[in-house]
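user: can you give me the structure for this one chain? tokens are fine.
assistant: on it. calling the predictor now.
[tool input]
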Amino acid sequence: MTSCYIIDDEEASISLLSKFITKTPDLNLVGSSLNPLEALQKFQNSSIQVDITFLDINMPEISGLELANLIGKSTHIIFTTAHTQYGLEAFDRDAIDYIAKPFSYERFLKAVSRYHKHWHNAQQQSPKKEHFFFIKNDTKGKLTRIVIDEIIRIESMANYIMIHTTSGKHITYLTLTEAEDYLAPYGFVRIHKSSVVNPKHIKGVDGNQVKLIDGSTIIAGVSYRKLLTEEIAKNLLVSKRRN
């Protein structure tokens, strides 16, 4: 889901952009501001962290071009303005796009498409860092390397745990809580008193049954279902249309 924010001193412009964002799948409107200085303070305090900021240029106290210099490193800018003479200056600020008011929904979608293309190209070019750790096994002095993205699930076995990965199974002397605490920053979630799963490898959810890519099915415990629901909601795509 692509998060969006609007900074414009005209309520009509905010209303139109809000309408366009709300009706577009994969876009989420985080908020808007009529006052650019208030918006600047929110960005500087890190209370706003968004993918796209729709930014007007002609505003009181501080222009959109000046504001872009101050917040441009923390968000992607799409300028929206009734004045066409600022185009070159806008792209000097590494803006994703420059939309002249009034604009259609089709033109709005073109700007959003440019953002997605920019994001995709950046992802392709940036090297992916592989996260891993080592565990001890039954052979003295021998360590096994575990790649975190390859972990499907972790199963409790009394004083041991079994780590199920895409390449095999590994047993080590650890508690499930120790493994859970270590892997929580990577999005792993406990769904049963004896199971921690990697949401990246969930194949589907049917009620309280969690089906994983290795063919296993885990019944989510009652006290853990809220955590599972919250994790799935982060990547849930649903229609914004009203029935």
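assistant: here you go. The longest strand covers residues 27-33. The longest helix spans residues 105-125.
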